[in-house]
């Protein structure tokens, strides 16, 4: 039976669950020169073979040579586009470092216990406000990272969906990248450690 390895695509690197512990180890591609407001992994496309080689070597060092028995459970930023999602899946599944991949945005990993909730997060290029119900995104709004207004986001959160207007829906501030200072008052803060604990034993069947 295939084993799952949780991974997180952060704003500047990839974190891979440690095989022998509860922590995560960072994978950084050598000689990476990311551009402002553009996800760092776009650079992988310019040197795919080299990038996949380094990642496979990283995985062999941490998980041994029999990588084909693993499924990578990849948690991605909430503003990941469909094309980026396809690229991420193809990059890892063709790296030779796994049997298969599954992918889920951060917003869906924030809470396992709530049937419905709001989450707000930041990537390199946008702030994402999202309403999640029954483990699916119902409504999502993106705000430009350079021009957003925190007060507007807070106001929008209150009327994001009709469910919210008539029900007490919790709000989670995903502070995984430690960049949410101006939005912390919106709701319950999810720290990097809390987020990593939530996905340390993630079930790939739920992705």
Give a structural overview:
With 207 residues, this protein is α/β, with parallel strands linked by helices. 26% of the residues lie in helices and 29% in strands. The protein has six helices and ten strands, in the order βββαβαβαβββααββα. The strands form two sheets. The chain has a five-stranded mixed sheet. The mean pLDDT is 91.
Percentage of β-strand residues: 25-35%
Number of strands: 10
Largest sheet: 5 strands, mixed
What would the average pLDDT be, to the nearest integer? Answer: 91
Shape: globular
Radius of gyration: 17 Å
Portion of residues in helices?
A: 25-40%
Q: Which runs of at least 5 residues are low in confidence (pLDDT < 50)?
A: none
- Spatial strand arrangement across the major sheet: 3-2-1-4-5
**Total of DSSP H or I helical runs spanning 4+ residues:** 6
Q: What pattern of helices and strands is seen along the backbone?
A: EEEHEHEHEEEHHEEH
């Amino acid at each position: 039976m295939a084993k799952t390895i949780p991974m997180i695509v952060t704003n500047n690197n990839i974190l891979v669950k440690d095989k022998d512990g509860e922590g995560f180890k960072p994978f950084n591609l050598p000689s990476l020169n990311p551009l402002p407001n553009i996800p760092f992994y776009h650079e992988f496309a310019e040197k795919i073979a080299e990038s996949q080689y380094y990642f496979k070597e990283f995985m062999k060092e941490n998980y041994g040579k029999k990588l084909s028995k693993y499924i990578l459970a990849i948690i991605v930023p909430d503003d990941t586009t469909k094309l980026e999602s396809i690229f991420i899946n193809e990059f890892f599944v063709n790296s030779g470092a796994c049997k298969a991949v599954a992918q889920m945005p951060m917003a869906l990993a924030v809470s396992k216990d709530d049937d419905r909730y709001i989450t707000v997060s930041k990537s390199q290029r946008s702030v994402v406000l999202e309403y999640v119900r029954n483990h699916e995104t119902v409504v999502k709004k993106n705000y430009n990272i350079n021009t957003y207004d925190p007060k507007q986001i807070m106001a929008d959160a209150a009327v994001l969906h009709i469910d919210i207007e008539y029900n007490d829906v919790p709000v989670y501030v995903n502070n995984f990248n430690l960049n949410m200072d101006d939005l912390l008052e919106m709701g319950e803060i999810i720290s990097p450690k809390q987020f990593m604990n939530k996905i340390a034993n993630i079930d790939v069947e739920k992705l």
